[in-house]
Amino acid sequence: MKMGITCVAFIGPQNNPMYLRSMDPATDDHYLKLHYIVHCALDAVEEKVLLKRGPSDSQDVYLGLLYPTEDYRVYGYLTNTHVKIILLLDDEAPIKDEAVLRVLRRLHSLYVDTTSNPFHKFGLPITSPRFDAQLEQIVALYPRPGASLGGFTT
Amino acid sequence: MNARQPPKHSLNIVDRPLSKNRSEVPTVSLSAFAYLFSEYIQYLVDRANSISELEDRLEKVGFEVGLRVLELLSYRDKVLRRKTDVLDILRFIHGPAWQYLFGKTADDLQQAANGDDEYYIRDYDLLVSRYISVPRSYEPFNPGTLAAGIMRGMLDSAGFPARVTAHFVSHKDRQRPITTFMIKLEPSVMQRQAYLEAAKKG
Fold first, then answer.
1. Is 0.95 exceeded by the ipTM?
2. CB-based burial of residue B58 (10 Å sphere; 0-12 exposed, 13-18 middle, 19+ buried)?
């Protein structure tokens, strides 16, 4: 049974879903559930953004753990252009924030690469197969439970 | 003629940090850009039916560039925070963004006297218009519209929809006219700004 990152979603500035991908093979029903969870996560993102109105230097990109649901933990990341990256984790083990942040930064880099393409249309769903392949590579970097973080085998 | 190997970059080009040292940053040849830009304007002149359409198309191109520039710059500059204040984003455009695009910061940023939703950014010698002289018959046209489109793209994707127009202003001390960009923010932005101010105080 696969654990680790279950789902990656990119939401555009107008809260339009641009990309949602389940890392495990999923049925349509399962996709519906994922869409629903990501949609609820958007509310949590708004809440976090509104809470940070006070001190002006806390407009961070990484929003951290948004909220835990029954099976998943939801992490959020908000870029400067209001693009949100939502990550669903299936882990029960204690999560290292830095690992999640690393994956989110690489996803951001991938997104910037994709938008630098002059033929890319903003706001529309991302359908490039290269994007899919690179996303899989990035997700594979996230340590699965049972695999040691240092890369040594025991 | 010397044939040189293109420099190899070990990191992906997007991952390299913006460096303060100018010699490290890869740059595009100015003459190549000037040629390309002049060809593009000729292409547009053939296809556009009027001057305003010409300006519109040029501005649209700049808009697309602006969207991507903001995405790129805000990713590369690791300490950058998301801007919620109008002045912050304008200072960012005036400073780092102009520096990245044209190699120097813009020269002036000021707020208009009438109403606080209008701002002016001035550049004494805009790079894109440097090698272009507009004939009398095309008088209202300003090639700085490309830069205006870039600014509008950046403002729009940062969440500050606005109208940006470019104007030539001739100054007695200078040979070339100064390009002034008039930025007019939409009412929704001003409302949000007022709400933020109130929230900060109360």
1. no
2. buried
